[in-house]
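Extended Data, panel c. Modelled sequence:
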Amino acid sequence: MGGCAMRAHIRRAAVPAVVLSLALLSGCSSGDDSAGAAPKQEPAAEATIDPADLPSEEPSSSASATPAPVLKVGETTEWAYGETDDTGQNYAVKTKMSVSVDSVRYVTPAEIDAAEPEQGQLVELTLTLKNVGQAPADVMLYGMTKWEDATHAAQDATTLEGVGDGPSLDTTYKPGQAVTGKIVLDVAAKGGKVSYVGTEDPNAEAAFVIEMPAS
């Protein structure tokens, strides 16, 4: 009996020891797993943006746009004449031209022996162009004029009558040279404005603009 009681006591004493051993092994295994795991990622710091680094809301081209001079009948203004290189880039001003609007006359086809206008109204402009700069300028008005008003979008105003009677305004102007001539345009209505768009300036919509009389 004494031997059996001793063996039972030993078994009972061994059970806590086994539990403790398992607990220690579990703790060590847990520690090893955490040591081998990837380090915990800390949240990235929130980036700050300098307003100066943001792109401008306004297109750069608008900031550098070249406004076209505007004139009425009886007025004279100057405009810059320039050219691009053979690749169509690197625009540079070469000389200055002046334009005078000597008269504007709305006409019928019968008055100038012309065909019926497609847009609805023929108008005869008498202009004086002069080279007031230091280099030659090749000016071509034919096919380079547009007309528009508050209700009509810009339209090509070219007619088959072209430059009309008299000297041609489409020529090469050497410094100091001038020509007074006529161009006949086809417009949708009286008034509005005529723009000469024969410019190679990439930042200009027109070389000059003429405000047309209402009658």
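Helices lie at 2-36, 60-63, 109-112. This feature is highlighted in the accompanying rendering.
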